[in-house]
């Protein structure tokens, strides 16, 4: 981690060390709720708030903006804002992935980047278990039989006979592993640093797990083929980096168990969609669940809609009634830390990309 990222950026130049101005871009909704703005103001009293639309147009000057809460802005829009905000020192990403924040311009500026690690872990883990249970209990086939008015009992699998392989053991991967453990699954994982403690919290944004995480093995990335060969469900929970782009390729699928499932709740670019389509049409895989795609929104013309044994959801695994409160709460906590000159939560290592 570079020196700029390892220290807190404050104190700010506003009253009491808060940022002089804070930029807010849309995060999970087009508009901030009144209580969200009140929480930001309470955490940084005296700071001027500037709201920025999806198009990148602010409702006030950006010259004294020192901190930004950034949502799903395209990288080019973010860079345009950055060029107009010479005082910007810290950007908090309202997503866990930061590939659209770590642009060449932001790297050259040496910005401190924090992310939303831990905010979405619980709903995403519940989504993954929903899909694993649906596949193990043959729910898609049962719904087809219902539509055909056919009475045909199907044999299912108990989850204690299922192996879940998790690619990426950050807060989402650990939450998935904890729930899978609670259901009796055998759980394996790969992570960049397999020697790191698997149960430790990565930041204040993390919530307590729903149970204890028990891992049979934690492997380095170069042993991914071994995990693929053992797993009934491969859950992609890794960040998008040069090392993970196109991870699920023809070669990777060739190492997987016949009948295994792929569940992607990370980034669409982790999966070679053409390779996945071929494997599903050939029956090489049992099925797949995609919540994220190379192109979003997924256009009606996409061939993915016609692929057998593929469950498609519109990037909604993260959704719950609580995530916006957690997102704003984490940013507010970091605002207080910024003003006090304390270390921020969830600082991103720009070299690692997460």
Model description:
The chain has 354 residues and is of the alpha/beta class. It folds into 2 domains: 137 residues, NAD(P)-binding Rossmann-like Domain (Rossmann fold, 3-Layer(aba) Sandwich), CATH 3.40.50.720; 192 residues, NAD(P)-binding Rossmann-like Domain (Rossmann fold, 3-Layer(aba) Sandwich), CATH 3.40.50. Helix content is 30%, strand content 14%. It is built from 11 helices and 12 strands. The strands form 2 sheets. It has a 7-stranded parallel sheet with strand order 8-7-6-9-10-11-12, with helices on both faces. α2 packs parallel to α11. The longest helix has 18 residues. The N terminus is likely disordered.
Topology:
Elements: H1 3-6, E1 21-24, H2 34-43, E2 48-51, E3 65-70, H3 75-83, E4 90-93, H4 104-109, E5 112-114, H5 121-136, H6 139-147, E6 163-167, H7 171-182, E7 186-190, E8 217-219, H8 224-230, E9 233-236, H9 250-255, E10 261-264, H10 273-282, E11 287-290, E12 310-312, H11 323-340
Parallel strand pairs: 1-2, 1-3, 3-4, 4-5, 6-7, 6-9, 7-8, 9-10, 10-11, 11-12
Helix pairs in contact: 2-11, 5-7
Shape: elongated
Query: How many beta strands in the DSSP annotation?
Result: 12
Supply the number of structural domains: 2
Calculate Rg over CA atoms: 22 Å
CATH topology of the largest domain: Rossmann fold
Quote the distance from N terminus to C terminus. Answer: 11 Å
Class from helix and strand fractions: alpha/beta
Query: What is the CATH top level name of the largest domain?
Result: Alpha Beta
Report the biggest beta sheet as strand number plus sense, adding barrel if it closes.
7 strands, parallel
Mean pLDDT: 92
User: Count of helices?
Assistant: 11
Q: What topology, given as strand order, has the largest sheet?
A: 8-7-6-9-10-11-12
Helix/strand order, N-terminal first: HEHEEHEHEHHEHEEHEHEHEEH
Unreliable stretches (pLDDT < 50, length at least 5) are 1-8, 197-206
CATH superfamily of the largest domain: NAD(P)-binding Rossmann-like Domain
% residues in beta strands: 5-15%
Please estimate the helix content.
25-40%
What is the second-level CATH architecture of the largest domain?
A: 3-Layer(aba) Sandwich
